Amino acid sequence: MHSSWKNAVEKSIVYKKLADKYQSPKGYAPWNDVVRLFSIAGNPEYLRHIQRSFGVNEETQPVLESGVGALTAAALDAPAIYVERNLTEAILCTEVSAMEPPKLVLPAFFICLPHNTLFDDDGDEITSLLVIVQRTYLQYSLAMSDAVLDHKTILINREIEHKNLDNLRVYAYTSKHAVISVIHGWDTSTVPKDDTSPITYSPSAGDAVDKGAFRQTTSAMMRIVKNVILIYNYQKNYLEEIPEN
Question: CB–CB of 118/126 below 8 Å?
């Protein structure tokens, strides 16, 4: 790790709040490595620099949104859920049909995956997912925003009208530090051909992106997220909660 990158990470609110919170079991990415991935974007100074220098566009939006997600996770002291390998393999084979939102017990949480479980369309590994419920994301993103009150009210009312507050915002970093951002509703199936949820990938890939393969990746992400939420609601004994350090 370059010293400048390391310094930026260690100055991040996210790193200061969440580092050393857990000790990952064998076979999972070290917890602090997970936190580091989200820590640079989860730095208000860095987010303001991006907005001032580059604005909000297709290239900066996933970074900005993952940064707000990381700051939200830090503010809420979001827990980590470690999913056992056999269960992860079963989950990846279990589609979730469109349904009414279940009771959302955790407004923000990390899902830590066994090594060699999930990869993006280029074959780069994804070791963790950050999940933020839309109503929680909006609460924190608008609090961090300089937007005028009228704009905030319009945005919240629009989300209420479209029944989007239970939607799931999911962020992941690949082993090459590329960010993936997905917004997924419970009214959308996790079957790739039925999945029309908005997804964001690195625009540097340009036309080289295999959108079908990328949809396979994001659908696998959502199978994991939705099944974990359902298990957490109804069969929590299948999930391992690691004690905090």
Answer: yes
What is the predicted pLDDT for the residue at 144? 63
For 239, residues 6+ apart whose C-beta sits below 8 A from its C-beta are 81, 82, 83, 84, 87, 228, 231, 232
Are 136 and 167 contacting, i.e. CB atoms less than 8 angstroms apart? no
Q: Which residues of 80-107 are buried (b: 16+ CB within 10 A; e: fewer)?
A: bbbbeeebbeebeeeebeeeeeeebebb
pTM over 0.90: no
Length, in residues, of the chain: 245
Q: Which residues pair with 109 in a beta bridge?
A: 131
What pLDDT score does 206 carry?
44
